[in-house]
Amino acid sequence: MSNPISALFGRSPIRPVQEHMAKAHQCVVLLGEFLEASYQSNWEAANEQQQAISRCEKEADKLKYEIRINLPKNLLLPVGRTDLLNLLNAQDKLANRTKDIAGLMLGRKMLVPASLHEAMRTYYQQSLNASEQALKTINELDELLETGFSGKEVEFVGKLLAELDEMESQNDATQVGIRAELLKLESEIPPVDVMFLYKIIEQVGDIADTAQRIGNRLSVLIAS
Length: 224
Description:
Structural class: mainly alpha
CATH superfamily: Phosphate transport system protein phou homolog 2, domain 2
Number of domains: 1
Largest sheet: none
Number of strands: 0
Helix content: over 70%
CATH architecture: Up-down Bundle
């Protein structure tokens, strides 16, 4: 009789965790298409993209559930079970945040002022880049295991994590600029819309923040 744990994980749970991160990142990719549709007030296309994000997030949730229920109590790995679950939870928040953004914007048919479109495109791209960088670091987990979390591989991952920190800092700076531009427009926009625009700006930036937290969780795994 086959062992369901072995069937899911093989030698370790690392591959499923990497697959989960890839799925979470895909949600972030899809968010870009949603935002572009919303900038054009194409709510039919935006609805299609929101549905795609929702399906992607559900697939990530399914992977998360399978990992949790099949994760052995005693890992024969140089990583702690709790640390691995904390990493998984951080990845999960990445997918959840994209669903939150799309759901809120579609539900209210939120219009980002045209004068902010280019800045928002840059801002989103920075968050997307941070998510992609986090994915790169997670994809190094199997290499880290093979090298026993030592040597040049650790140095390489450390470089990736330092770059991720810098990406998040740049994203923070861009957020400050966008908020300043929105402040200038407040008198032209209904107050409730202004409030929700600030919320969306914060949540798009939270993608980069979450990507950085994923990197921080990986740092804990390396140091443990």
